[in-house]
Design a protein that fits this description.
transferase; repeat; 15 helices; 366 residues; binds fructose -6-phosphate
Amino acid sequence: EKGGYDHFMLKEIHEQPKAIVDTYRGRMLPDEGIIRMAGIDNHMNKFLNAERIIIVACGTSWHAGLVGEYLIEEFARIPVEVEYASEFRYRNPIVTSKDIVIAISQSGETADTLAAIKLAKSKGAFVFGVCNVVGSSIARETDAGAYTHAGPEIGVASTKAFTTQITVLSLIALKLASKKGELSKSDLRTYLQKMQLIPTKVEALLKIDNKVKEIAAVYKNAKNCLYLGRGFNFPVALEGALKLKEISYIHAEGYPAAEMKHGPIALIDENMPIFVIATNKGHYEKVVSNIQEIKSRAGKIIAIVTEGDTQVKEIADHVIEIPETEEAFTPLLTTIPLQLLSYHIAVMLGKNVDQPRNLAKSVTVE
Ligand code: F6R
């Protein structure tokens, strides 16, 4: 049932190229520059008239929501807020019928997310679901939605659900952008053609697994790790840290790279591994200067760079290369080595990768 893999998590990491294709298949026609998503198309006026989109979710799905914020604001120019469902539901939030709430949930059963939806509905907002489990409570409770087609996710640590959520959010952002006239037909076509290349690029990344494993072996005994990224890859830094915490029980924190100097920099010494996402677009020069700050404090730098990078390679202790793509799509690639890294570290430490202690696959209690 694990399809020849040692763990469900590894199987699910490797399923991502297919899961991403399954998620966009039938929804985008790259050469024609068309995106079809019934859940959006049937409510287009609501989306076009929305004053604000509020994304609610928990955990990894909340990280996907943050990527969604960057995508929707960048392309569709609609203001977006991302909230932890647990905070949203209890803080008497201001929600009106001019708001659209997007709830993201792999399981579709997360209690806090479900309660946030009910609250938003009671205040008149239109609620759109991005769920993986068909017919789940959240899928039923929302006014419309788009399923991720990741297939069953068994490993407690979410992997393919995350990348397929980002795929759906990318399509939503591009669709709304094109409807609003923020994106020309030819630019939309270009983006979709690049999206179509993502699964092959993920496939290529999965092949460098040995390199990631070598890095895992070097840092597996670390007590603390930092993950840094900027822009679209800031949420990936958060997600990288969460994956490591969850399955290897190593303390890790994700930060926007520029926030490092406002506190976490005090932690840096020669025992501190720091994973930095430094792809060639997205404030590259600024990330390079963040890396130099780490280097001058003797921190160990593991950088995720774009193929062909030379600048970061000179300063980092290890580099992992990702194929070139649109900046907005880089989270779909930068996430992969971080998933593999956590996996290998957890296996090397003898942890229960698929069922980490204290965690449940769906959190149906608040
Ligand atoms: C992380 C993880 C959790 C879930 C969170 C939300 O690997 O599995 O953080 O992402 O409990 O779950 P869903 O998406 O089912 O609402």
